[in-house]
């Protein structure tokens, strides 16, 4: 009986869908929208099954092509994009966030672009179950800002916030610009404070928007002539320094200058000294509670609660020392080296700098037990204990929770070279953690045995509002050192 010849296996990658994808990817890489549209029409004609990937790829290419000024036939590309989007929905393929973002960008090229783009975003969750991102809001927001429709731009920003999305500098700068052009003094103030909370330094283009505002007649009239200095100062203290948030102070023309700030924080134009900014009181309390709740979940509860109780009765410290970090600095870990003399040097230096106030030393009890076996070390340990400045953490505990909680709770300095990037710090998930570190962390070095403490800077590089109503805005410049940085100084 004759055997049938073996059937040839179809080579992978030769199915129409795969061929279409490869050709489409080539068009995408080359920015060839005309070629991609031709492929799409042929695929529809041939009955090729199109997926979310195919539709998103074509629509993304449409949106990027429309943003290039040299594209020859924008009206046709816009119409084709909406036809493709409608086909996608008709085929039962749900648009994703990427789809809506591309369509919003495309819609923004129409005369009614702002409304079209924003409507797509407002309905995407209900219609398609897709959640917007910051980029999804951009087309509608920027369209309204560019075309001077301030109220609708504010509506977009409000919708963003309701969906848990915070604008970043490009969005805030656009909102500032439309507010300046519309003469909306209260919104300029609002977005200036949002800008302050969003970034440290601003782009020069953003600073130029603010320069335009401070030079306007409306800005000269915005504000009040009388205010309670104590209320302003209390607000600044509550906010962690650097701003009060109670509105424009004073009246009259602003003197706007490009300034520099010296190492001590003094502005070269107005001579005001800038503040070293901390996180505000509410964030400090939240931060301390977060550290405590995580510690209690990972430590033996009774041990950490004992520490909290102890700290509540010994709350006069101005500095906390991460004893292990200091003692192990530049020591031979293989030999278990720990320099108690280094730790003593840090403690004594802090005592001198604070006019006779001892810092709190956090050390694990297993290390302390070793020191107690050496007469000279034992004498030092007992001296610290007699002064009430040594807290030994119990077996099985992690020192990090104790020194971090103490520094946050007491709002004081923390001496450690620990970058605080380990998993326990990642658990905090705090967007103000870096700001807190910049204000409270003291790093150190021992050069040939000589201690050098690197104290927090005397001022913070962040937008600052003074109690007299003046403003200082730092400009981002990756090529300049701190003392060469430009600042926008605005003073009545």
UniProtKB/TrEMBL annotation:
Cofactor or coenzyme needed: Mg(2+)
InterPro entries membership: PPR_rpt (IPR002885), PROP1-like_PPR_dom (IPR033443), PRORP_C (IPR031595), TPR-like_helical_dom_sf (IPR011990)
First and last residues of every PPR repeat: 133-167
Recorded GO MF terms: metal ion binding; ribonuclease P activity
PROP1-like PPR domain boundaries: 8-221
Enzyme Commission number(s) from the entry: 3.1.26.5
GO biological process, alphabetically ordered: tRNA 5'-leader removal
Domain of life: Eukaryota
Domain PRORP: 262-489
One Pfam family linked to the record: PRORP
UniProt signal peptide: none
Catalytic activity: Endonucleolytic cleavage of RNA, removing 5'-extranucleotides from tRNA precursor
Keywords: Hydrolase, Magnesium, Manganese, Metal-binding, Nuclease, Repeat, tRNA processing, Zinc
Protein family according to the UniProt entry: Belongs to the PPR family. P subfamily.
Full protein name: ribonuclease P
Organism from which the protein derives: Dioscorea zingiberensis
């Amino acid at each position: 009986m004759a055997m049938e010849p073996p059937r040839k296996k179809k080579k992978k990658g030769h199915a129409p869908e795969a061929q279409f994808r490869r050709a489409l990817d080539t068009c995408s890489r080359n920015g060839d929208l005309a070629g991609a549209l031709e492929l799409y029409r042929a695929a529809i004609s041939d009955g090729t099954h199109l997926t979310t990937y195919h539709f998103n790829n074509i629509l993304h290419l449409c949106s990027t092509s429309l943003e290039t000024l040299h594209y020859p036939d924008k009206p046709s590309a816009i119409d084709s994009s909406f036809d493709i989007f409608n086909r996608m929905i008709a085929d039962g393929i749900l648009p994703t966030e990427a789809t809506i973002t591309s369509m919003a960008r495309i819609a923004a090229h129409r005369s009614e672009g702002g409304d079209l783009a924003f409507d797509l975003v407002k309905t995407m969750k209900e219609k398609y179950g897709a959640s917007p991102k910051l980029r999804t809001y951009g087309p509608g927001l920027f369209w309204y800002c560019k075309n001077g429709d301030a109220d609708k731009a504010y509506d977009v920003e409000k919708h963003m916030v309701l969906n848990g999305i915070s604008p970043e500098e490009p969005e805030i700068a656009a909102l500032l610009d439309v507010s300046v052009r519309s003469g909306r003094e209260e919104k300029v103030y609002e977005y200036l404070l949002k800008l302050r909370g969003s970034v440290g330094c601003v782009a020069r283009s953003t600073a130029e928007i603010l320069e335009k505002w401070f030079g306007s007649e409306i800005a000269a009239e915005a504000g009040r002539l009388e205010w309670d200095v104590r209320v302003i100062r209390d607000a600044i203290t509550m906010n962690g320094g650097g701003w009060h948030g109670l509105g424009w102070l004073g009246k009259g023309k602003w003197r706007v200058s490009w300034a520099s700030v010296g190492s001590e924080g003094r502005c070269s134009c107005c001579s005001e000294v800038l503040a070293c900014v901390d996180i505000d009181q509410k964030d400090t309390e939240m931060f301390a509670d977060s550290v405590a709740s995580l510690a209690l979940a990972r430590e033996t509860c009774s041990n950490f609660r004992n520490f909290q109780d102890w700290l509540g009765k010994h709350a006069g410290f101005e500095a906390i020392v991460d004893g292990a970090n200091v003692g192990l600095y530049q020591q031979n870990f293989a030999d278990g080296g720990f320099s108690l003399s280094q730790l003593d040097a840090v403690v004594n230096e802090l005592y001198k700098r604070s006019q006779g106030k001892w810092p709190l030393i956090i050390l694990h009890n297993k290390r302390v037990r070793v020191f107690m076996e050496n007469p000279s070390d034992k004498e030092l340990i007992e001296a610290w204990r007699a002064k009430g400045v040594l807290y030994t953490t119990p077996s099985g505990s992690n020192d990090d929770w104790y020194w971090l909680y103490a520094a946050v709770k007491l709002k004081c300095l923390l001496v450690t070279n620990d970058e605080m990037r380990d998993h326990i710090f990642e658990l905090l998930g705090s967007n103000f953690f870096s700001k807190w570190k910049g204000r409270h962390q003291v790093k150190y070095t021992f050069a040939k045995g000589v201690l050098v403490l690197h104290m927090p800077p005397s001022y913070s590089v962040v937008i600052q509002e003074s109690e007299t109503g003046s403003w200082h805005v730092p400009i981002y410049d990756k090529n300049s050192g701190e003392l060469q940085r430009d600042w926008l100084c605005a003073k009545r």
